[in-house]
Amino acid sequence: MFNNSKLATSVKLACAFGSVMAISASNYALAQEEATTEKDAEEVVEKIQVTGSRISRVDLEATQPISYIDDSYIKDRGMTNAITAVLDLPGVIAGVTPEIGGNTAANGQALGQNTISLYGLGSQRTLTLINGSRFISSNSPVGGGGAPGGQVDVNNIPVALIDRVEVMKVGGAPVYGADAVAGVVNYILKKDYEGAEFSYDYTSFNGIAADNSFRALIGGNFAEDKGNIVVALEYNETENIAARDVPGLANDWGSFTPADGNGVENDDGEVPANQVLLVPDPRAGILSFSGLVTPGSTAITNFGLGAWGDGNFYQFDPAGSGSLVSYDPGVATGNAVWASGGDGLNLLETNTAREGYERYNLSVIANYELAEDLNLEVTVFSNRSDAGNQGYQALQYNSGVFGGSGAALSFNTSNPYLTTDTRTQLEGLLGGEGDFYYHRGWVNLGQREIINESSVNSYRAELTSFFDVGDRTFDWALSYQKGISSVYSQDQGLNIPKFFAALDVGVNPETGQIDCLYNYTDDYEGGFVAENHGLTDSENILGAQGTCSPLNPFGTPTDASLDYIKYNDQGQTRIEQSILAGYLSGEIFDLPAGGVGFATGFERREEYAEFRPDGSAELVGLSDNSTAGGYTTQDVYAEAIIPIISSDMDIPGLHTLSVDTSYRYIDNDRSGEDSIWAVGLNYRPIEEVMVRYNITETVRAPAITELFLPVVESSQFATDPCDARNLESGPNPDVRQANCAAEGLPTDFASIAQNASRRGFTGGNDSLANEEAKSMNVGIIYTPGWAEGLDFSFDYIDIELTNAIVSFTLTDIMNACYDATDYPNRFCDQFEREADGQLPALRHNDSPR
C-alpha cells in the first residue's frame, strides 16, 4: 500500500568541478529557443531562453547550476544512445538501464528502457523534457522498471538529432510543473538543419555479444526557404549477455548477515548491529540446481541440517543421469543460507548482465513561416522497440525454508522415475522404503524468456510569434501535443497446480507406462505430492483428464511435460498524454539596472495509463493486477527577472545583482491544489566571480500506479526486528526487546524471513496527496579571464523531501510495530505470526489511508 510518509528525507550534496570546454556551463546555459529583437536598423541583440525559464534574456546566468553537453561531445565519444550523453555529468545516474552495471529492468514492461535519476532520488523525481516540453512516458503502471511515475524512456530520443542536453541540477518546477524535484534534464534537438549525415557503429563485448547502430540525419529548406524539415532515422541492436558468460560476474562477492552474530568489535569491545559478511562465490546451501536430497524437510547445510546418517549430503546428478552423487556444502559462513563455494545454488549464474533489444526510431521536425513573424513547428516521433530477456532464473524453487508451493517436495522411494541403483541407495540410507525430501531450483524447466514489444508515437504542434506594444516586444507560444505509448509484454510462468499434478505419478494399469495419476484415477484428490501442497481436483486448472503429461523430477523433462506445466503470461500497457500549453513573455518596465523580464503561461495536461493482463496468471491462482486510471492537471504560472544593479552603474563590489522569482498554481483533480515557487539571486562582486543562491518549493504528483494499483499478491524478504540478531538495533533497543518479549518470542528467536521470502499483498491508494520538497542551492563560479572557456564552480545543494509517497515494506511495518512505545499499535495488525513465531503472510492491503 502506498502511503504519504511524514518523515523527512534530506539529501545534501556538495559538487565542486571545473568545466572543461563543452561539459559544463555553470554560468552559461545554451539557448533552448532563440528570438531576435531589433533595437535599430543596424543592431540586433540576440536573446535566448535558459532551461528553467520562459523569459528570453541577453545574459545566460541562472540561479541554479546548469550543465550541458553538446553534439560534438556526443560524436567525439561515439555515444549511441541518449542516456550515455548525460552520465558523464556529476549527479546524473541511470534510473533504469539494460546496460551492464546498471539497474537492470527485469520486468517485461521495462525491457530495453533507459530513464534518468538526478542524485539517486529516483527517476520519478527527475523531469525529462524535449525542447522544453514534457514527453510521453513508457513506464508501465504495472511491471515498470523504475519507481511509479511518468518517467521518459530517453531511448526514444534520436542521438543524431540532439543539439545539446541541458541539466538543471535543482529546481525548475515553477516553470515546468510537478515532478521536477531533483531537477530537469532538457534534450534540445536540432532545428533548421541543412545537409546529411550518416554513421554506423559496431561494438563487440569480448566476443560475447555485439552492438550495431546506424544513424541518418537529413535536412533542408523548402518553399523558398520559408520552411525547413529535418528527418532522423536510427536503428540500434544490442545482444543479450548472461552473467555467467562474463568472467567474474558469476562468482562475484555477496554480502549477508551472519546468523551467529559474530562481527568486528568496536573500540568498546562491542559488535555493532547490522554488520554484514562479505562472501566470495556465494551459494545457497538450502537447495541445488539438480536437487538436494535430505531425510527430513529441513536443509540448512551451513549448520549441518539435512545430512544423512553417514554424515554426508547428497544430490541428484547435475548431468541428469538420475543417480545420487555427493553434495559439497561449501565453506560455512555463519549465515543460515549462504556458503562460500560448493554445490549450493548460485543465483549469480542465473542473472542477466544486459538485456538485448532492437530499436527503430523515426523523428521529424518541420517548421514553416505561415505569415510574417508567425511560425508553425511540428514535431513527430514514431518509435518501435523489441526487447528480450532470456532469463536464466529457475521457474520454480523448492526448499525446506520456504512455505506453500515453495516448500521442499517429498517423494517415496517407490517413485517409478527412480533408477534401480538410486532406489537401492536411498533405501539403504533410509533403512528401507520410505520418504525423502527434495530441495531444488528447477533450471532444467527451461529459460524464463521475457518479451517486450513497445511503440511510442508523439505529435506536437506549436505556433510562435511576437508583437510590439510601444517600444516593447513580447513573445508568445501556443502548443498542443499528444503522445501514446503501447507495450506488449510476455513472460513465462509455471502453472503450479499442473506442476504438482505432473509430479504425482504412477504406472498406468492400462498402458503399463509411467503416467500422471490424474489421467487414470477417478475422483482424483491429489495423490501424495499434490495433497501436501493443497492441490484440488479441478478441470479448469488441470485440464481435461488424460491431458496431463508426467514430469520426471530426477532426470530430463520431455517437451510434452514442459508444454503442460508452463504458460505464457501476456499483458498490454497503454499510456496516453495530451498537453495544451501557452506562454507570453517580455520586458514589462525598466529599472535603472535594466528591463524587468516577465513571463506567464498556462498548461492543461491529461495523463492516462492502463495495464491489461490476459488473465492467464489468474487462471493459475495468481493475482489479476489489471490497472487503469488517470488525472488532469490545470496549471498557471508566472516568473520575473528583476535586475537590481548592472555593470554600467560602476558600484565597487557590486558588479551585477539580479533576482529571479517564479510561481505556479497547480490544480490536480486527484491530488488537489498546490502552489510552488522559487526565489533566486545572482550576485557578481567582480566580473570574474559570481555567487548564486536559489530556494525552491515543489511537489511531485502521485503516479497512476500509486493511485490505482489494485491489491495484488507479492512476496519479499524482511528483517525481523525480533530476531536475536536485531534485538540490539532500532532507535530504542530496550523498547524493541520489551515489545518482542511481550509478543512471546524468546531472546534467541531466529526468523526465517531474512532468508526466505514471505507472501503478502500490496496495492494503490487513491487518497494520496502530493509529495512536497524544498530545495536550496548556493554556489560560487570563478571564470578566469586568462583562460577562455574555463570555469570553476562549487555548488552546495540541499533537497528536503516531506510527505513522501512510499510503499511500506514488511520490514518497515514490523519496525513500526515493535519500536513504538504504544505497542501494540495499528502496524501490528498488518502482519501475523504462526505459533512458532514465524511469518506466514503480510496483509499490506490493510494499511490505513
UniProtKB/TrEMBL annotation:
It holds the Pfam family Plug. Residues 556-818 form the TonB-dependent receptor-like beta-barrel domain. GO terms for cellular component: cell outer membrane. Belongs to the TonB-dependent receptor family. Residues 61-184 form the TonB-dependent receptor plug domain. The lineage of its organism: Bacteria, Pseudomonadati, Pseudomonadota, Gammaproteobacteria, Alteromonadales. This is TonB-dependent receptor. Gene3D superfamilies: TonB-dependent receptor, beta-barrel domain, TonB-dependent receptor, plug domain. Keywords: Cell outer membrane, Membrane, Receptor, Signal, TonB box. It comes from the Bacteria. It is found in: Cell outer membrane. Residues 1-31 form the signal peptide.
